[in-house]
Write a structure and sequence with these properties.
alpha+beta, 13 strands, PIGX, transmembrane, membrane, glycoprotein
Length: 221
């Protein structure tokens, strides 16, 4: 790794994130533009997702096997079927790749999924706010400016391909961030009686049809 020379002035670094696609299944795109040449440093974004959004660990493992995404998910277990009000807020470390023909721009994309929410009264959607990710750098054999960078408490390697922990650093001066918001469709509480009635009617009808077919075509000894 080469040395990252950060001046005491701490030049501006920008971190942006964008939700791509529509519906409950999206791609979260994170882009970083450093104020300095990153050289051979590893760059990552640490994100705390809201309870209404989750990352599928099985999908993540498949993507990493094909070298499409590099990330570390800090969660003992993730219930893929849990609704928003019964889920936790996962923490994710997403490794960013250097953009082509640039030593300052980094980016990475990750599939995320929205959870179902409680029915609400008088509204058709719930608004989820994605906090701005925290920018982290890991530079081997380099000396970052103490005025601009400080050690971060992140117990993970500098890449998803390694098992040896290393020292990550975060900026002392908060970089320019752009957050994202996601509107998730939710059911209307005013429709709960109608939904329950239709569900009960459909269940009874289907059960009757299954029972009739069993009596007509079944062989009973």
């Amino acid at each position: 790794c080469v040395t990252l020379d950060v001046q005491a002035a701490c030049r501006v670094t920008t971190v942006t994130q964008e939700l791509l696609k529509e519906g409950f299944h999206r791609d979260l795109l994170v882009e970083v533009e450093l104020g300095e040449d990153a050289g051979g440093c590893a760059v990552a974004a640490q994100m705390r997702l809201p309870a209404g959004i989750y990352v599928d660990p099985y999908e993540l493992a498949t993507l990493q096997q094909h070298n499409l995404t590099k990330a570390v998910l800090f969660a003992a277990a993730i219930d893929l079927e849990a609704p928003e009000y019964a889920a936790g807020a996962p923490v994710l470390l997403l490794f960013l790749e250097r953009a082509a023909r640039s030593r300052r721009r980094f980016r990475a994309a990750l599939p995320v999924h929205a959870r179902y929410h409680r029915p609400a009264r008088g509204t058709g959607g719930a608004l989820l706010v994605l906090e701005s990710p925290e920018l982290l750098l890991c530079c081997c054999h380099s000396h970052l400016s103490a005025e601009c960078w400080e050690p971060a408490e992140v117990d993970t390697p500098c890449s998803s391909d390694s098992t040896t922990p290393c020292q990550w650093y975060r900026t002392k001066h908060r970089p320019a961030h752009e957050g994202s918001m996601l509107r998730v469709p939710v059911g209307l509480r005013e429709h709960s009686s109608l939904v329950c009635a239709l569900t009960l009617l459909t269940t009874g009808l289907c059960s009757g049809l299954i029972l009739a077919a069993a009596c007509k075509y079944g062989h009973f000894s």
